[in-house]
Structures are given as C-alpha cells and as structure tokens.
C-alpha cells in the first residue's frame, strides 16, 4: 500500500477512487499547492487555453516533477510533466498524477493527456476540478477510469479545490458563455474620488500600484474609456513586475462612441505591442473580448465608464484599491458570480475574499 493510500486509511477517509467525500492526504495537498503555484506563473499567457498545473509523485507521495501549461500550442501540463519525468530518468517511479484540471481526452493542438497518462506507469490521478469545456467535460476522467486509473476529483469545499477553481474561473465562464471575465479595478483616494491630482495619473501606494501591474500581467486584455485616454494618455502596459512568460495583455479596448481616440496615442500603444480596438456598445463588450480569445480582461477606466458598466451589470468582480476615509490603505473586493474569482490567486486579495464582510465600493466621482 502506498503512503498516500495508507494516509487515507489511518484518517478513516475513503481511499482514492471512491466518490465519497475525502480529506486530501498531506502529500497530495502539497503536490496540489506546487501544481497551483506553477500554473499561476502562467496566468495571462495561456488564453484561450486555461492555466493548468501538474505534479507527478512516486508511490510514497514524494514529488518527482512539477509542470504547467505555458501557452496555447505548447504541451499541456500533464504532457510536459511526463516529459520532464522521462528526461530525468524518473518515469519508472511515477505512480500518482496531481492535476489542477481534468486531463483532456481530445486531440486539439496536442494529443490527449488521458492517453499519455495511461501510457505511463501512473495509475492514481487526483483532479482539482472537472473541465467545463464541453469537448472534455468528464471524458478525460471516464477514459482514465476505463483505462485502469483510480481517479479522485476534489470536493467543492476546501482551499485547494477553491484555488483550482480560481485558476480556471475566467476559462470556465468563457467556455459556458463565450464572454470574457471582467475585473474592474478602481482606485480611490481618501475622499472617495477617482480623479488623480493635477499633473498625475495615479495616486495609490506603491504596493497598490504593484498589485495593479500584477493584475495587468495576469489578464489577457485591458479595457479603458475614451475619457481616460484623453485625460491621461495612459500606458496601460505591464511595468513594475517581471514578465517572465511574456504575459502582458495584447489587446487594449477603448470604449468610445464618437471616434475620438487620438492617432498618436494609438500609434504609441501599437508600438508597445497592443492591438488597439474600440467598442461603441458596452453591452457587446464581453462577447467582443471572448470572440478575440480573451478569457480575462481588466477594466481601468474613469467614473463615466465604470458607472455605465455598473448600471448594466457588466462586471464579474470589482476591486477597489486606495485609501480609506481614515487614511489607511483599503482593499475591497466584490464578487458577482460566487466565490470562484481569479482574484483569489493573489495572496493579498485572498485574505480580503475570506474576510466575513467584503465591502463593495462602486463608482466614485
Ligand atoms: N482612479 C482610477 O482608478 C481611475 C481614474 N481615472 C480618471 O478618470 C478620469 C476620466 O474619467 P471619465 O471622463 O469618466 O472617462 P472614462 O474612462 O470613464 O471614459 C468615459 C467614456 O466611456 C464611454 N462610454 C460610457 N458609456 C459607454 C457605453 N455605454 N458604451 C460605449 N462607451 C461608453 C463614453 O465615450 P463617448 O464619450 O464616446 O460616449 C465616455 O465618454 C481621468 O481623470 C482619469 O485620470 C481613469 C481610470 C482609472
Ligand atoms: N489613478 C490610479 C490608476 N489609474 C489608472 O492607471 C492609468 C495610468 O496607467 P499608466 O499610464 O500605465 O501608469 C490611468 O490612466 C488609469 O487608468 N491606477 C492605479 O492603480 N492607481 C491610481 O491611483
């Protein structure tokens, strides 16, 4: 019996493969954490594919290798992890795969991961969350079971399962609706105003600005309003944080009904690598982004556009950063569609999300 199965037995929880509720044995939880962290490094690089991480363990629960999907067209996490195992001469010891998302069972840009796992010595698979993609939806798990693997899918509760769902929240939303996930990021000063002091475009703290750039890096597109473009001539590019996987958003959408985007600003944005488009009907914005392969977009706009998005219910989560009335740093998150928000991936925000009362703050003047 493996250490991992033994752990289940000692704790009295159902062993791998049963559908009954299971506590995650510590070696498996550790492997999930490693796979989640690796996948999180590529959030913002994989669209239209989801970010996925995979760890391969030996029968004692020791991690042999960890890998993630880097970008569409490149190997899936499981395929890369198996390749690393083989390259390192560790394949004979491979016994358990821990995958944040159900392995695929179709031939897309790469071969089916279920078959790659079945062709290896691995016979136990832990899955963080079933694939919401209708082309996969349970097929990978069924194929693995039919091929002789014991497969355990995590329960809905618990931090590990929540992190696996957070990783694919935009992908799940896009797969079901064709719409991009919209995160509004709003900076406010102590008086509740969004308008920066004269001569400046930002006013929040150093750490808040870093968080804003981390968010830019994690998303696939930035949405702004023509008022902001005209007032700030914003860069909206990723700075302040390293961009190891070339994750900077490629698409920049300006909500503008009157064709006022200045040619020189557009040319600058294009020179920085942006595909600049305009949107004259915000009702169509999520579909427009989704059709462009955007899973997750961040809105950085002024009070005019934010009020319109709020009134139309066109947001999935809403992050307010800045200074509270008492002068202290504030960080509020409102989540519209349950708790499966990708903002959970940011440690600073995970703390806010688990707070009993996440206060929502909506457009300031
Ligand atoms: N603190 C913060 O987080 C931020 C602050 N700002 C600040 O905000 C100020 C600019 O704010 P504001 O002038 O309100 O500009 P916005 O960036 O909010 O852009 C407003 C424009 O959005 C367009 N828009 C509004 N509703 C719709 C709709 N339904 N469909 C399509 N387009 C729509 C309109 O374009 P049209 O006129 O063509 O109809 C409108 O003029 C600046 O001072 C800037 O520094 C900006 C970003 C973030
Ligand atoms: N004022 C404000 C923000 N505002 C957003 O940042 C834009 C400037 O981006 P850039 O030109 O790339 O530095 C600005 O036009 C607006 O969209 N963001 C914040 O994190 N904190 C702030 O205080």
Automatic annotation (TrEMBL):
Domain CMP/dCMP-type deaminase: where? Answer: 27-152
Work out whether the entry's keyword set contains Metal-binding: yes
Q: What is its EC number?
A: 1.1.1.193, 3.5.4.26
Keywords (alphabetical) are:
Hydrolase, Metal-binding, Multifunctional enzyme, Oxidoreductase, Riboflavin biosynthesis, Zinc
The record ties this protein, via InterPro entries, to: APOBEC/CMP_deaminase_Zn-bd, CMP_dCMP_dom, Cytidine_deaminase-like, DHFR-like_dom_sf, Eubact_RibD, RibDG_C
Q: Does the keyword Zinc apply?
A: yes
Q: What GO MF annotations does this protein's record show? A: 5-amino-6-(5-phosphoribosylamino)uracil reductase activity; diaminohydroxyphosphoribosylaminopyrimidine deaminase activity; zinc ion binding
Q: Where is the composition biased (Polar residues)?
A: 1-11
Q: Pathway of this protein? A: Cofactor biosynthesis; riboflavin biosynthesis; 5-amino-6-(D-ribitylamino)uracil from GTP: step 3/4; Cofactor biosynthesis; riboflavin biosynthesis; 5-amino-6-(D-ribitylamino)uracil from GTP: step 2/4
Region Disordered, annotated ranges = 1-20
Give any single GO term for biological process: riboflavin biosynthetic process
Kindly list any coiled-coil regions of this protein. Answer: none
Task: Give the family from UniProt.
Answer: In the C-terminal section; belongs to the HTP reductase family. In the N-terminal section; belongs to the cytidine and deoxycytidylate deaminase family.
Role played: Converts 2,5-diamino-6-(ribosylamino)-4(3h)-pyrimidinone 5'-phosphate into 5-amino-6-(ribosylamino)-2,4(1h,3h)-pyrimidinedione 5'-phosphate.
Q: What's the protein name?
A: Riboflavin biosynthesis protein RibD
Q: Which organism is it from?
A: Gluconacetobacter dulcium
């Amino acid at each position: 019996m493996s250490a991992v199965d033994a752990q289940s037995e000692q704790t009295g929880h159902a062993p791998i493969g049963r559908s009954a509720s299971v506590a995650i044995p510590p070696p498996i939880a550790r492997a999930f954490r490693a796979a989640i962290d690796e996948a999180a490094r590529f959030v913002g690089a994989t669209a239209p594919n989801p970010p996925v991480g995979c760890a391969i363990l030996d029968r004692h629960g020791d991690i042999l290798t960890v890998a993630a999907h880097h970008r569409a067209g490149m190997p899936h996490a499981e395929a890369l992890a198996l390749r690393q195992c083989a390259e390192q001469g560790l394949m004979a010891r491979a016994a358990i795969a821990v995958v944040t998302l159900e392995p695929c069972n179709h031939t897309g840009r790469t071969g089916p991961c279920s078959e790659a796992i079945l062709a290896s010595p691995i016979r136990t698979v832990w899955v963080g969350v079933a694939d919401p993609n209708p082309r996969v939806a349970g097929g990978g798990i069924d194929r693995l079971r039919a091929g002789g693997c014991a497969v355990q899918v995590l329960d809905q509760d618990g931090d590990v399962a929540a992190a696996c769902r957070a990783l694919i929240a935009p992908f799940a939303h896009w797969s079901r609706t064709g719409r991009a996930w919209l995160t509004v990021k709003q900076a406010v000063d102590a008086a509740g105003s969004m308008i920066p002091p004269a001569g400046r475009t930002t006013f929040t703290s150093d750490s808040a600005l870093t968080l804003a750039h981390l968010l830019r890096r994690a998303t696939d597109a930035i949405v702004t309003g023509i008022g902001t473009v005209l007032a700030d001539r914003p860069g909206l590019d990723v700075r302040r944080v390293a961009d190891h996987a070339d994750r900077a958003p490629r698409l920049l959408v300006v909500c503008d009904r009157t064709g006022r985007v200045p040619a020189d600003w557009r040319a600058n944005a294009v020179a920085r690598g942006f595909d600049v488009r305009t949107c004259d009907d915000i009702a169509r914005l999520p579909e427009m982004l989704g059709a462009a392969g955007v899973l997750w977009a961040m809105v950085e706009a002024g009070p005019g556009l934010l009020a319109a998005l709020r009134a139309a219910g066109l947001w999935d989560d809403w992050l307010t950063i800045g200074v509270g009335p008492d002068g202290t740093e504030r960080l509020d998150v409102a989540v519209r569609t349950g708790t499966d928000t990708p903002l959970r991936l940011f440690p600073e925000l995970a703390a806010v999300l688990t707070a009993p009362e996440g206060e929502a703050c909506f457009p300031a003047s």
